[in-house]
Amino acid sequence: MDWEYFFELLLGGLTRGSIYALIALGYTMVYGIIELINFAHGEIYMIGAFTALIAANVLTMLGMNELAVLVLASVVAILYSAAYGFTVEKIAYKPLRQAPRLSPLISAIGMSIFLQNYVLLAQTSDFLPFPSLIPELEFMEPIAHIISSAEVIIILTTAVVMILLTLLIKYTRIGKAMRATAQDRSMAMLVGVNVNRVISTTFVIGSALAAVGGVLIASHIGMINFYIGFIAGIKAFTAAVLGGIGSIPGAVLGGMVLGWTESFATGYVSSDYEDVFAFALLVIILIFRPAGILGRSTTQKV
Amino acid sequence: MKIQDIKESFFIAAWFILLTFPIMVIQVNPIENIIEWRWWNLILVGAGSFMLSFVWRYLMNRKAGQKRKESEDAEDIPLTQRLLRNPRFFVPALIVLGVFVFAFPFLFSAYQINIMTTALIYVVLGLGLNIVVGLAGLLDLGYVAFYAVGAYSYALLNHHFGLGFWTVLPVGAFMGAMFGVLLGFPVLRLRGDYLAIVTLGFGEIIRLILENWNAFSFGPSGIANIPRPGFFGVDFSLEASSRYLYFLMIAMALFTIFVVNRLQNSRIGRAWIALREDEIACQAMGIDKTKTKLTAFALGATWAGMVGVMFAAKTTFINPASFTFLESAIILSIVVLGGMGSIVGVIIGALVLILLPEYLRAFSEYRMLLFGAIMVIMMVFRPQGIISGVRRTYQFKGKGDKAVKTRETVKQPAPTTDHS
Prior knowledge:
The complex is a heterodimer.
Chain A: H1 3-34, H2 41-61, H3 66-93, H4 102-122, E1 128-129, H5 149-171, H6 173-183, H7 185-190, H8 195-221, E2 223-224, H9 228-243, H10 248-268, H11 274-288
Antiparallel strand pairs in A: 1-2
Helix pairs in contact in A: 1-5, 1-8, 1-9, 1-10, 2-3, 2-4, 2-8, 2-9, 3-8, 5-6, 5-8, 6-8, 9-10, 9-11, 10-11
Chain B: H1 3-25, E1 26-29, E2 34-37, H2 39-72, H3 79-85, H4 87-107, H5 110-135, H6 143-161, H7 165-187, H8 192-212, H9 214-217, H10 238-264, H11 267-277, H12 279-284, H13 289-315, H14 325-338, H15 343-359, H16 367-381, E3 394-396, E4 404-406
Antiparallel strand pairs in B: 1-2, 3-4
Helix pairs in contact in B: 1-2, 4-10, 5-10, 5-13, 5-14, 5-15, 6-7, 6-8, 6-13, 7-13, 11-13, 14-15, 14-16
């Protein structure tokens, strides 16, 4: 067995998994609170990447140095993604709070198609080269052939974001309100939680995380177009379901499992069927363990 | 119009200007390092969102008003329904429509006929999906997979064994049904939104396999030279054959309408509607959930398979690119726009969504943008579609003045109860 190749795949899977986990968190949080698959979430991630690309290009042309560009472009991307997430919720989901379950789902699909084509028409259908914003770290030189510094930064950022999010949900006031809303929305309302604000906050946080993922993966892969959100969205959703939707550690675990599955399957089996593996995994998981790895299965009450 | 409304709309316009600024205004060209500033778009977005916010507010108010009115007066029958039920309107309209349909291919060019045939294909696809989504309430996002199965059945059977259109037509339908059951079995246990994702995954898997398994499906380059349908060995000119295809499609559409209409009022159709409204109550009434769901999938897929064969015969060339998720989304938006569970609605929906972009060439670019917007707007303001399906009504005439009527329009297209 070729160990170096194995480690390369392992770390490649970890990087991929981190990105999936970042996007999956948005799905999981939204699903946990309003039980909606936010189909447009992948598009928010794509818009984050696009905004970062535009900001980075403008700032570079203004003559800023690399680090400033990285920081500012990321901040702009995060702010804009959060704003888009907020607006999408207000337009497409909020009026449907009381509607039957299929309605917001169809509305979400519509929103996803709309945002995709909005970027396609306003920008371009071509792949745009994304500037490699993440600097090469010098101390990484000796192991650079196995793991690049971009990958290290992706993994580290994901870990930090994950810890911050867990702390936010466990210990802050808004985190508590979020958990309360997730458990029982009307009861939370009764005890004075501003449910609308909690839902908006959830969308904002989820979208911001998607933007972080978008910037990281775009500068790692180096290419974006309007369609990246669709596949990434579905895969991240797979990750969320895999880990047990609604559970935050589950989303991370699911992301990793999906990242490794894809990485090893493409490395050892065939790279043509990369997406097929992800979808097949999704189908299998949903059939055999719909509650996910960490999820508890709920019984239906009548 | 109140001052406050104008103020609010200003805020909304400002918000959207800010929101769309990087994507609408700045166009970067990273290869040549040029930035194009399109300030004109800024004004467009501002003015557009300012206007739209008024429309949005008006519609929202109307929706709120409607709800109040409905609860007061549940007897109000929508105008469209009244028209459709009134034989004095209905019969002449049907005759005019029939004459138009038959005269159409002789009045217009081959190009127009082709567009109409395409629209009819979507009518049948919409009606097929309507069984699954509209009647049984199972959101299927991978419907296009069955369409692909039908199209590839014809293309491959013809390529390898030289089978003709008429032989493959039932085979395609059968293959569609088989795949419907194949998909239906594993997803029986899944609830609404999970089901949507799995069907989406299924559709993508089928497309990716068709794209990558070169030995089987000839990969992305597709299969060309698929023969058009024959007619007792008569050779048609190009124009005559498009006319012939048109009539075939009309026949197929009529057949579909007939069958779906009969199905809707049958025992199984009623079971689907019951399943859509409340799964648990439906089971409690003694309906076999497994059988009901599977028949919905199978029957829905049958039409897709059949039309797939038709599609392959019409275009004479197919490749996996014709069967992407967007195609599923288009079919879904037809059903949503028309009205889930309503046959007339779906037909109108298909004709509007397919014909409008074809005739308004200038805006065909914005087609998908519009489809997305339609799905959102319809869900928010009119979830029952253009023409809502009508529940069966029973009228009990009491003695004289005490007439008890029970009648209800379908307001909710999907199961309302999903306790977890």
